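Usage

Read records sequentially. Each one opens with the input sequence:
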Amino acid sequence: MKYYYLDESGDLGFNNKSSKFFVIAIVTANGANALKKRVNKNTAILLGKGWPADEEIKGNSLWISPRRPRIPKQISDNRISYISKTIKYLCEGDITVNYIVFRKSRISPHLKRADNAYIYNYFSYLLLCEMHKKELLKTDINFTVDMRSKETHKQMPFNGYIQTRLATDLDYPHEMVIKHCDSSQVKGLQAVDFLCWSIFRKYEHGDDQFYNLLKPKLFAVKRWYV
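and closes with the structure output:
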């Protein structure tokens, strides 16, 4: 069994303050605890420096730490170093990083008016299709999605949509168990958060310093009007 962790970065709004791009990333690992040790070590280092124990450590929260009075200056002044070390350490593990990025302005008007779930589900499926081409979907999968990423619609649930499309379009014969969890409780979700955020910064802000660190682990990548 393989373990997949999905997160997104950007937003699905379409106003002047919305992001230009949206990124969905999936990190794959061979075991349930493959990323746990690495995330725990990174967490322990920052907690030892004074990071608030009640606040999850995320890529963006580290990046904006100079604007956060609760975050010790020692951390905020060295945030680039901490982020870089975290990404390097995560990528030392036996993982793959897979993502889809799309330019939101090219989405058709009728989809812009629809519930966000339609866009979110469809592009998640496209990423899995790309992974299928790379032969990553060859076994049973335990698939964990960040609960806060779950853009749902009462008639378009994520789980049923993904499982149906894989079975009918890709003839996927294996079991896929999909769970929606709070990232504060799942180390794999905390890992994919850092990596997905790094990918988003490359496209949204033209900042590839962190993206370049994870490039050796990139596997399935799909760019849509980028």
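Summary fields computed downstream for this record:
- Residues 187-205 form the longest helix (19 residues).
- The radius of gyration is 17 Å.
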